[in-house]
Amino acid sequence: MSAVSTVSPSGVTGRLRVYAKLGKLSFYDYYLAAFVVWTALPGALLWDGRTWSVLLLHTVGYVGVVAATVALDDVTGIRDGSDARNYSPEDGTLRDRSRKPLLSGALTVRQAELFGWGAAVWGAVFWGIALAVAPERSLWAFVTLAAVLASNVQYSYGLKISYRGGQELILLTPGLAVLVPYVLLTGEATGLVVLETCLVGLWSLLVSLYSNMNDVEGDRLAGRRNLATRSSAAGYRRMVAAIHLLEPAALVAAIALDAVPVWFAALALPLWAVRARQAHAGLVRGDVLVARVLGMKLHRWGVPVLVAANVLALHT
Questions:
Q1: For residue 243, with 0-12 CB atoms within 10 Å meaning exposed, 13-18 middle and 19 or more buried, which class applies?
Q2: Could you give the CA distance from residue 247 to residue 209 in angstroms, rounded to a whole number?
Q3: Which of 287, 294, 295, 298 shows the shortest CA–CA distance to 91?
Q4: How far is the C-alpha of 311 from the C-alpha of 55, rounded, in Å?
Q5: What is the pLDDT of residues 276-310, one digit of tens each?
Q6: Are 88 and 149 in contact (CB under 8 A)?
Q7: What is the separation of C-alpha 23 from the centre of its chain, rounded to a whole number of angstroms?
Q8: Is there a contact between 181 and 62 (Cβ–Cβ < 8 Å)?
């Protein structure tokens, strides 16, 4: 494991700032799904008090689950040396090394572990309350949330699912932040919500696939088995290109099944233009960290597009 310098934060504010970095609280993309869910609801539920309660409780719980996942991932990354290799100083702002407080020594591994398990308990408690107050009792939602919590905490820690071929599957789970709250509030899943679940999941995946492309050598040395480490460079690029095509394919299928109106595709065209830029940057030019940043921006821009589509389709 690479040596790290020790930089201890001073004061309560400094300590909280370091833990916020460990939990990646500035990466808010996943939590924007609550706005998609809210605008996809039938009009009668929009201003119901329990709607707001379920969405807030689910989102606050999800913050804990994500914080636990990334904190425990950093624990494994510092132990096997993969973070030191993957977050090289040369990457600059495209891969901000300051977001890894274990690399700087601002936190100890033990502190990060305690934070990670505390965040997991936080997530479980708030998701449990969300299930208890939801208007619809759904065994499927309970099982799904339990599976997401367990698998995400074990992403790179414990069972190390991402080291054993399950990384890409878990990276799709942010889409469930649309589907699960909607089911808890309505007891059903519409074609529109299923499409938006798929899109949000793919948006998340199309950030992480480029991270994996950048990290492939470090991940191989650490023993992580994912699509990038098990494929040739050319083969992986072909797989990523195919996954790019799943986004328009999902929308075309939804239109063909009459789940969404045809004009939905017109709203998506600006996103696809940027998606093409992302693919060109990552797959043609080899600027994989630029492609990663474009994917993050697309996730954030895509949420207002889905919100606008929901308002036009359901509330006008």
A1: middle
A2: 14
A3: 287
A4: 18
A5: 999 999 999 999 999 999 999 999 999 999 999 99
A6: no
A7: 13
A8: no
What is the per-residue pLDDT across 73-103, written as a single tens digit (0 to 9) for each? 999 989 888 887 777 665 545 566 677 898 8
Q: Which of 277, 92, 88, 289 lies closest to 208, judged by CA?
A: 289
DSSP string of 165-228, one letter each residue: T-HHHHHTGGGHHHHHHHHHHHSS--HHHHHHHHHHHHHHHHHHHHHHHHTHHHHHHHT--SHH
CA pair distance 292, 311, nearest whole angstrom: 29
Predicted TM-score (pTM) of this structure? 0.91
Dihedral angle computed from the Cα positions of residues 113, 114, 120 and 121, in that order, rounded to the nearest 10 degrees? 160
- Quote the tokens at residue 157: 């820690």
> Which H or E run contains 251?
helix 233-256
